[in-house]
Amino acid sequence: MTDFPGAPTGPREGRRLRVLAAMSGGVDSAVAAARAAEAGHDVTGVHLALSANPQSFRTGARGCCTVEDSRDARRAADVIGIPFYVWDLAERFREDVVQDFVDEYAAGRTPNPCLRCNEKIKFAALLDKALALGFDAVCTGHYATVVLREDGSRELHRASDMAKDQSYVLGVLDERQLAHAMFPLGDTLTTKGEIRAEAELRGLAVARKPDSHDICFIADGDTQGFLAKHLGEAEGDIVDEDGTRLGTHTGTYGYTIGQRKGLRLGVPAPDGKPRYVLDISPVNNTVTVGPSEALDVTGLTAIRPRWCGTAPSGPGTYTAQLRAHGGETEVTAEPVGEELRVEFTEAVRGVAPGQAIVLYDGTRVVGSATIATTERAREATRPI
């Protein structure tokens, strides 16, 4: 039997696995499912219905959860020649992803719903159900790699192609989940165009389908409008670092740390330079703005750490990624109780409570945690 990079290995190597392929309706997951089937595994495709009203999700091939996407996934499964099902996880998705997204913004934080979906839906609810039904692994179209160590443990590593690497949003996976994860595209040193060409050769109609973007459950892409509908408008002040009122807002949820555009301030800065969002306080309904240098962060505390393997036992030197498409920065990090303390080698900007920080040792993902507070060169921000 053939195999491919990213397939679970170890005692099961060379054995035909029962694989549940999560098929979003996009080209990546379709090619991943096809490769798993071609490798000789017993593959079943499943599309996750994540909304009680799928028409309210993105359409026009921009989402991953619409009726259109479900049909595309079914057609791809038919071409591959594998069974296909639609599983209703709408209620779980609403509670664990959508409501979490709203609650985080209401608290003045900036969440990552895709990361939460991977943690709570694709590799918790889906994997648990798959294992209960006797499947050995869940296969997805993520670009990341699972590596088996000599002691039998598994590590999550970056994809071979850094331009497509998605390990940041998978940093919440623990070792048990990694043991049942399959990423057939992770070691693919090919461009997205070549993946599309492969899909075309396989006869998959999704070969030309655009990639998904933005947040799938916000149909029109208007995040502020979505939050206003759920949280209501609440006019408050935009102030400078001294507390001087510079303008007003209709909801603190419409802002994020480091934001420059859309502030609509009536009073220019004394030096004429742009202002940026420095702090968001739902408690007193204010947004604080100031100069770019006030955004310099030298350290942070993160909560709810999740480790891709054994947790570090003391301080260590790592690189950290702070955004899904951001670069790496050198840090010193140490677990302290249920928290993670991080110091940056050089100050960084645009770090917001609610975001995830993912630690790397080379290409290996060490773990992920949620940013709670930041320490700035000028002053510390409020707690989470």
From TrEMBL:
Belongs to the MnmA/TRMU family. ATP binds at A22, M23, S24, G25, G26, V27, D28, S29, L48, G141. The active site is at C117 (nucleophile), C216 (cysteine persulfide intermediate). It comes from the Bacteria. It comes from Streptomyces meridianus. The record marks H142, Q355 as: Interaction with tRNA. This is tRNA-specific 2-thiouridylase MnmA. Residues 225-290 form the tRNA-specific 2-thiouridylase MnmA-like central domain. It catalyses: S-sulfanyl-L-cysteinyl-[protein] + uridine(34) in tRNA + AH2 + ATP = 2-thiouridine(34) in tRNA + L-cysteinyl-[protein] + A + AMP + diphosphate + H(+). Residues 298-371 form the tRNA-specific 2-thiouridylase MnmA-like C-terminal domain. GO terms for molecular function: tRNA-uridine 2-sulfurtransferase activity. The keyword Nucleotidyltransferase does not apply. Its main location: cytoplasm. It is found in: Cytoplasm.
